[in-house]
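Figure 2 data, in text form.
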Amino acid sequence: MSVYMVERELPGISMDQLAGAQKAAIDTSKQFTKEGKPVEYIRSMYVPGEAKVMCLFKAENADTVREVNDAAKIPYNRVVEAMDLTP
């Protein structure tokens, strides 16, 4: 599986809404995996001064990551393959 970054611009989002979106991403990823489309939510980074959120997922392809975010009803600008360099 590859790592994909989901870029979002969410102006005006509250911390409660952000937590809800994160939970939806996690829950929807788990549901897709149960249905035979493996995808794993890794983590998110929030840049409050720019209202940007970057989320990392592991999946077979970018289309699955898009499908998860569409099903979870979380808006995004783009999905790109990325390298997670966490030591």
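Caption note: Residues 5 and 56 are 5 Å apart (CA to CA).
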